Amino acid sequence: MIYDEVNETITSRRLVLRRFLPSDSSEVARLCNNYNLYRNTMYLPYPYSTQDALTWIESHSLNFREDKLYEFAIIDKNTGILYGAIALSNNQPNRHGEIAYWVGEEYWGKGYATEAAETMLKYAFAEKNYHKVFARHFGSNPSSGRVLKKIGMEKEGVLKEHIVKDDRYEDLVYYGVMNPGSLMG
After folding, report:
1. Would you write out the chain's pLDDT as a tens digit for each of its 185 residues?
2. Exposure letters 50-63 (e unless 16+ CB within 10 A, then b)
3. Is this prediction's pTM over 0.70?
C-alpha cells in the first residue's frame, strides 16, 4: 500500500483508491442501478440515478474534511476503469472504524473487493492508527463474508433479523480485526 497524502490516493498492486469526482457520477449510477447490488447493500437506493450519484459524491468532501468518513473510488491502476467504492468510517474516541464497499456486478469474483478492503485495512492501521476495524454484511450475502475472512477479519457475531430489506428481515453478520501494532496512548 502506498498512500499519497497530497493527491489523497492509496495504491495497491492493481488498484488506485482515489476520491470520487463529479465526472464519475454517470458510471456510479450505471453500476449502482442494479438490483443484485442493491439487495446486498444497506443504504443504496433503487432505482439509482445520476442525481443520486452526484448528491452522494458531493457529500464526500465535508466527511473527509471533518475526519468522519473516507470514501474512495476503486479504480483499475492501468485502465482507469471504475469498479466500485470503498469507505472507512472514523470513530476517533474509540480509535476504530467500519469498512464498507460495493463493486459493480460485472466485476464480481475478480478479487477487487478483497484487494480494496485489504488496502483500506492497511491504511486504517498504518496511516490512521486505528486500534480496530470492523465490517458487516447481510447473512444472505456470504460472498462478502469471504472477502472479510481473506483480509484477516474474524466473525464476531450475528444480529438476527436486524435489518428490513425488501420487506424481509436480514441477519447482520459482524467481522473485526485488531491492529497488531496498536498501543494505548
Report:
1. 898 888 899 999 999 999 999 999 999 999 999 999 999 999 999 999 999 999 999 999 999 999 999 999 999 999 999 999 999 999 999 999 999 999 999 999 999 999 999 999 999 999 999 999 999 999 999 999 999 999 999 999 999 999 999 999 999 999 999 998 866 54
2. eebbbebbeebeee
3. yes
